[in-house]
């Protein structure tokens, strides 16, 4: 029988929801409304004078070639971070799920990157790939690859993608490992007895049962690539060389706090928020149809 919680008073459910509603209003709706208001204004660097300009900031944004180029950079970056992060994490989870001896050591080792702050992760990768001091750059030099992310845009984009993926792998790994361990072993054993090989068992049994987890991680990784990678970009390339790795979230910071274009920065944040909301809606509307619950 279906069990439901019945409240005797009409106001008690709202009282229980009040803390969560307060957090959402204070930390999401209020900042979002302020960003929308500031995106239609022009302010001086100190915020002492304000002029209402309507949609002028948005028109200037989409007439700016540098801003349009940042869309392309962000699209490539988010696509690489999401696909590589999910793919590598799934592969590591499959291997870790099959380990019998020393399994706890390997699992603990794989979740350690999640405890590292994004800025620290960026600094670690900068040191490893430093053209003058980095051990990885030194090794690449011996195989004919002259690594220099300070001058080469492709190297710089590769560096921030690797750092962002490494930082997120632990999070994805935990969910995939939990999903794999929740699959009944009897299904895998029955398929093995029927002659299905490891790849066939994974593709026909395990992966379909992991689609809810994969869909959840797809949404999370897209949001992560758009928002939570700011510290990594700032610590590794600072949007360089030039503005070739200035993804949208970093350009919001640069134009607002360094170029002191507060209205333009607010307009960029509104556009970025709209893009992420639209991508999330599209994912839930189209991708979720292929999820098997």
UniProtKB/TrEMBL annotation:
Residue span, ABC transmembrane type-1 domain: 71-283
Q: Which InterPro entries match?
A: MetI-like, MetI-like_sf, UgpAE/MalFG_permease
Main subcellular location of this protein, as a coarse class: membrane
Source organism superkingdom:
Bacteria
Q: Which keywords label this protein?
A: Cell inner membrane, Cell membrane, Membrane, Transmembrane, Transmembrane helix, Transport
Write out the GO biological process terms.
transmembrane transport
Q: How does it sit in the membrane?
A: Multi-pass membrane protein
TM annotation in the entry: 12-30, 75-96, 108-129, 149-166, 207-227, 266-287
GO terms under cellular component: plasma membrane
Q: According to its UniProt record, which protein family does this protein belong to?
A: Belongs to the binding-protein-dependent transport system permease family.
Q: What is this protein called?
A: sn-glycerol-3-phosphate transport system permease protein UgpA
């Amino acid at each position: 029988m279906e069990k439901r919680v019945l409240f005797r008073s009409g106001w008690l459910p709202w009282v229980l929801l009040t803390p969560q509603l307060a957090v959402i209003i204070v930390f999401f709706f209020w900042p979002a409304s302020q960003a929308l208001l500031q995106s239609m204004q022009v302010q001086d660097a100190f915020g002492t004078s304000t002029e209402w300009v309507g949609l002028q900031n948005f028109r200037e944004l989409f007439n700016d070639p540098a801003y349009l180029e940042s869309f392309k950079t962000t699209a490539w970056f988010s696509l690489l971070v999401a696909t590589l992060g999910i793919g590598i994490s799934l592969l590591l989870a499959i291997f870790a799920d099959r380990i019998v001896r020393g399994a706890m050591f390997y699992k603990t080792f794989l979740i350690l990157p999640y405890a590292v702050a994004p800025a620290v992760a960026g600094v670690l990768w900068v040191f490893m790939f430093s053209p003058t001091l980095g051990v990885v750059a030194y090794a690449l030099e011996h195989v004919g690859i002259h690594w220099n992310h300070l001058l080469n845009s492709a190297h710089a984009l590769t560096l921030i993608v690797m750092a962002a993926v490494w930082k997120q792998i632990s999070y994805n790994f935990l969910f995939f490992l939990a999903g794999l361990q929740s699959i009944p072993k009897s299904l895998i054993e029955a398929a093995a007895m029927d002659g299905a090989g490891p790849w066939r068992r994974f593709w026909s049994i395990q992966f379909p049962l992991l689609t809810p987890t994969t869909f959840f991680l797809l949404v999370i990784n897209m949001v992560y690539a758009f928002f939570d990678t700011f510290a990594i970009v700032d610590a590794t390339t600072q949007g360089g060389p030039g503005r070739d790795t200035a993804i949208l979230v970093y350009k919001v910071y640069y134009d607002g706090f360094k170029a002191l274009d507060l209205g333009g920065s607010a307009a960029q944040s509104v556009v970025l928020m709209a893009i992420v909301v639209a991508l999330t809606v599209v994912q839930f509307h189209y991708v979720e149809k292929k999820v098997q619950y």
